[in-house]
User: Fold this.
Amino acid sequence: MTNKAGEYWKANIRLVTTLLIIWFMVSFLFGIILVEPLNTIRIGGAGLGFWFAQQGSIFTFLILIFIYAVRMNALDRKFDVHED
Amino acid sequence: MELQTLTYIVVGTTFALYIGIAIWARASTTGEFYVAGKGIHPVANGMATAADWMSAASFISMAGLIAFKGYDASVYLMGWTGGYVLLAMLLAPYLRKFGKFTVPEFIGERYYSQTARIVAVICLIVASITYVIGQMKGVGVAFGRFLEVDFHTGVMVGMGIVFIYAVLGGMKGITYTQIAQYCVLIFAYTVPAIFISLQLTDNPLPQLGLIGEMAGSGTHMLEKLDHVLVDLGFAEYTAQKGSSLNMALLTLSLMIGTAGLPHVIIRFFTVPKVRDARYSAGWALLFIAILYTTAPAVGSMARLNLTETIQTGPVGDPAANLVFDERPQWFRNWEKTGLLAFEDKNGDGRIQYYNDKNPEFAARAEAWGWKGNEMVKVDRDIMVLANPEIARLPNWVIALVAAGGLAAALSTAAGLLLAISSAISHDLLKGVFMPHISERRELMAGRLAMAGAIAVAGYLGMNPPGFAAQVVALAFGLAASSIFPALMMGIFYKKMNRAGAVLGMLTGLLSTLVYIFVYKGWFFMPGTNNLPDNADNWLFSIQPESFGAVGALLNFSVAIVVSKFTQAPPEHIQHLVESIRVPKGAGQASGH
Assistant:
């Protein structure tokens, strides 16, 4: 593997790791593990933990994928490995 | 206009549309048949993926599940959406770069092994067939309730429609039909939800209605629901009932199962570029999230509506229970189907709906002369289907919901059938038995395999094996424990070799199968389970449905250990991995 390709792959892994930590936090941490303490914070009629489990995690997943797509496309160009 | 006539017109129009698309989008090459010629715009593919993914279970069953399980049903919401994050970041772009037609084809080439490819084909076929049975059943039920045709006739009509567009058009026909089906199903789902949210909370957005206040009072909808349920001896809607460990494991199993289901993965082979595959996963989740974030509102509001229809005033006041003879029309409609049933146990001519399994509350209820819960049957599936009737919406909305349920079932069935037929004609026939088959003959074989798969699915839909409800756990468990780890290591772990991957897949597959069979019966045959299916007997109190994540962990561990002690993959395979990691040079997909 050339040096540049190695750098590109490392940057990719860094990005995905960061995004997957957030993925884990909004679903497993906020939605399941910490649901009860978080439920003491209210968002409208729902506890925050409940809201993350049924709404917030899904919205976050959506944002994560679009951030990934935009950032990866930028990385492709930066390391000159993009298509066409 | 009469409801039934209207339903025939709406459903008939959508079917005519699907057939029209089929004729317009015929497939003439294997590339078009397997991957729609790789020319699908990422937004269009996102929409098709959403329809492919959202099955009769998502459309009909999920909101009912939420209505009766409350917070605990969050596992389905997070599990079936969170998988797309894994798919987008760990699999889809790389598999698109690889640029072939099927999932087993990647596994076979990456692990330079026909054995690996065949194991993958077996996992794919078992997971997809079990899944498609439920869709065919859903089609039969929808026909039965809304068009009052016989269940078998319903399945036959559904098979006929899928046959026309899937056999003619392959992936190309399926893709354009799925786009139309998405529009039908999302419209059918959201319109009743918006009206119900408006009626209950004055808020047209169900996502805001869920956390909003009840119309004309200062109480929040969810707090009121908790209150109403606790007053009748039920658990709080928003409280956790199951164990956190099982919730987390089930969520994880559903997530990696979702990312490993072949019929979803192959949708990402249809876009022109690697870049498009990344965006397309985001669009798919956006279109899915519209339904999935609406479902919690539909579920909670339906539960509140149902409970308050029966318990009209303070609990314990004899006049506060619905008079049986004055029950609303939609109760009567659904009683006819046998999915809803009442029994006046104490003979007072009124209905009492409460939790008679709660000993403390049951004792209080007895003092009021209540003799047990009188709503003796309420099928969870009626929650979505009855929604327009509960909200007293016009008949055309009811007709639309029927068309939406059918669209959800048919679109998923078609995607699964394509995954099955391409595994047979491309992986088994061309890949293993007849490598020199011409393209024309392979295309013909693909169409025949499709027709055969439709016939098998239809037969199983009409004669569902007794275990139909349990096999969903199996489909996700298999995808999670065998397919997902093999794909992920194939991309992210260059040194993963043939021996590691094959042994890993077999470990994941067999451990998950055995764990499910030990508690659910061998091959789901009643009475053959070795241990009773309850928390006292589960290993580390892990329920069988949640085991897919553990199977995946075993798969990863075995594969990595074995690969350390066996020969590294050949040079050209390591180059292949390097090349799929960068988008540059992704050309047209080919089957060669």
User: Anything to note?
Assistant: Strands of chain B lie at 340-342, 375-378.
